[in-house]
Amino acid sequence: PAAAPQLPTSPAAAAPPPALGSLRQRLAAAFQQSLDAAFPSMAGEPAIVNPCNNPKFGDYQCNNAMGLHGKLKGQPDAPKNPRAVAEALVAHLPETGMVAETSLAGPGFINIRISPDWLASHLTTMLRQGISTWAPAGYAGRRVVVDFSSPNVAKEMHVGHLRSTIIGDTLAHTLEFCGADVLRLNHIGDWGTQFGMLIQYIAEKRPEGLNAASDEDVQDLQVLYRAAKQRFDEEEAFKQRAREAVTELQGGRPEYLQACAWQRICDASRREFQKIYDRLGVQLQERGESFYNPMLKPVVDDLMQRGIAEESDGAKCVFVEGAQIPLIVQKSDGGFGYASTDMAAVKHRIETEKADWIIYVTDMGQSSHFDLVGGGGRGHGGGGGGGDGKKFRSRSGDVVRLVELLDEAKQRIVDTVKERRPDATPEEIEEMAAAMGYGAVKYADLKNHRTTNYKFSYDDMLSQQGNTAVYQLYAHARIASIVRKSGRDVSELAKTARVVLGHEKEVALALQIARFSDAVDECLAELLPHRITEYLYDLSTAFNQFYTECQVVGSPEEDSRLLLCEATALTMRTCFQLLGIQVLYRI
Ligand code: ARG
Predict the structure, then answer these.
(1) Nearest residue CA, atom 8 of ligand 1?
(2) Which atom of ligand 1 is nearest to 369's Cα?
(3) pLDDT digit string (tens) for 421-441?
(4) pLDDT tens-digit profile of 114-144?
(5) In what order do the strands lie in the sheet with 309-312?
(6) Is 147 a pocket residue for ligand 1 (Cβ < 6 Å)?
(7) For an engineered disulfide with 569, which of 60, 219, 479, 575 has Cβ 3.0 to 4.6 Å away?
(8) The DALR anticodon binding domain covers which part of the protein (predicted)?
(9) Higher pLDDT, 452 or 97
(10) What pLDDT does 24 receive?
(11) Is residue 474 in contact with ligand 1, taking CB distance under 6 Å?
């Protein structure tokens, strides 16, 4: 949109002050101080603060009393019961202004009510300094490698790769929001056994041999792959020649690497993958398996020298404690495989990229592989990864053509858009349909726990009701229009006016807005993007309840309530940014 009068998600202002952490982290820090002061012998015992199970009793609760009571037993002056521990914790709580009241419940739970006055100034300050000041603590400055998407050359990118692309992109955005230094890596399969088969097939199809290969040979990679695979499966001798071709390819025999074959196949695949990334607006740095080829032999030699890998049946293996099978880092015929590459990648990412956190987003089927790589990688001096996400199955159980899937989602929403906005230009319709259609696919994926399968349904994901991107985009546009139609300049207003919380629905909305930081922290701490979509849904609900009961424009509280509207819209926009969904201001 030409002119968006609302505040941007990232302020143009100079560097914001360092983040003080999420609401939960701030409360935990306060309780940490009180714990250390009240029970010096237990100092350092982590304070446990969680959202309250029942909002009737409080917003958060501290659950340390029971555990501390047990640990203090037998010490001189030990409190006689958990409630006494809880009372001591409350008595030593430092003055932060955050806590309006506390109450004890059950054996020794401490219920905490956040102060509305504190919330009001927390929101006012955020509107002035930018929402990045709300980033949870613990992520800024960390160097994180996110290995995601990672499809295989010459094979079709399937829904599992789409899921990895969407989840990985959200994790990367969220880490970036928190100030982490993120390297987004596309570990494409450009070096596997399939190449021997493909190259050999091309070479034998043309009497002139490989040097005559052209783009025609790779025009339809699906056709090429299927034909080559069929020969590979049916002809033992061809299979053998294909295997030799891989070894030669990996040894770098020039003609295989020439533009005529390997490069041509990779380029053709790359063009296909890019169509998906363009539609989804995903940025990734390609660093495929081939990148690590020169490192494989030194890495295996090093693992052998250090005694981490050992010879077994002619192969070189890493035996990871507790694992059923070893990680084979070099096969008995001397060849390297997927596992060797991942070992080299771990080393490179830790030593050269200086990663202190490596996140792999790939299908659950590979979890045991990553457990082994993690084990082997740790032995090697670094931390490994962890598997992620279950295999996605499309309804028919086979691979769905992803480009078509995305375009269909977009196409299906076009009529709705035209109906609602008959005045829109074709470009505007295109922009809205893309935001909603592609956004719907992303949202449908992200709102599910990453380890569950879900049923892919256009009707569900494009619904204007319920927890969908379309619903959320409408909700945001509606709030944006309330602000716009007020005729006030909210960025000017934010400089002078303050949020004042009187009505109970105002307080509830303000608390929900402020909980954004908790959602971001949970998303990263557990690598669960659905924490963000859940949060967004609760935020829309809190806003609706506020708007039903509280008049905004024309009320005596107009200034403060406009700021609440703006804070809601800004927080929603930031969530969209984390989820990789294009924001719309007018629908
Ligand atoms: N190319 C692999 C596949 O399609 C995923 C790669 C995941 N990343 C890695 N470092 N192994 O299953």
Answers:
(1) 187
(2) 11
(3) 999 999 999 999 999 999 999
(4) 999 999 999 999 999 999 999 999 999 999 9
(5) 309-312, 315-318, 327-330
(6) yes
(7) 479
(8) 473-587
(9) 97
(10) 97
(11) no
Q: How many residues comprise the chain?
A: 587
More confident residue, 251 or 573: 573
Task: Output the CA 582–ligand 1 centroid distance in Å.
Answer: 28
C-alpha 358 – ligand 1 centre gap (Å): 14
CA distance 515 to 123: 11
Ligand 1 centroid to Cα of residue 50, in Å, is 36
**535, burial (CB in 10 Å: exposed 0-12, middle 13-18, buried 19+):** buried
* Single-letter residue type at 506: E
Is 73 a residue whose pLDDT tops 90? yes
Say yes or no: CB of residue 360 within 6 Å of ligand 1.
yes
Residue nearest to atom 6 of ligand 1 (CA): 150
Tally of CA atoms within 13 A in the half-sphere of 531 that contains its CB? 18
**Residue pair 564/499 in contact by the 8 Å Cβ criterion:** yes
Q: Can you list the positions of beta strands (E) in 403-523?
A: none
* 3-class SS letters over 423-440: CCCHHHHHHHHHHHHHHH
Q: Best of 191, 348, 362, 370 to mutate for ligand 1, by most ligand atoms within 8 A of CB?
A: 362
**Confidence (pLDDT) at 382:** 31
Report the separation in Å between the CA atom of 473 and the middle of ligand 1, taken as the mean of its atom positions: 33
pLDDT, one tens digit per residue, over 143-187 is 999 999 999 998 878 888 999 999 999 999 999 999 999 999 999
The mean pLDDT of 229-258, rounded to a whole number, is 84
Positive or negative torsion for Cα 393, 395, 397, 403: negative
Distance 162 CA to ligand 1 centre (A): 13
Ligand 1 pocket member 150 (CB < 6 A): yes
Mean pLDDT in the chain? 89
Report residue 586 as tokens: 């007018």
Residue 207: what pLDDT?
67
Q: Give 278: exposed, middle or buried? Use CB within 10 Å, 0-12, 13-18, 19+.
A: exposed
How far is residue 375's CA from residue 341's CA, in Å, rounded to a whole number? 15
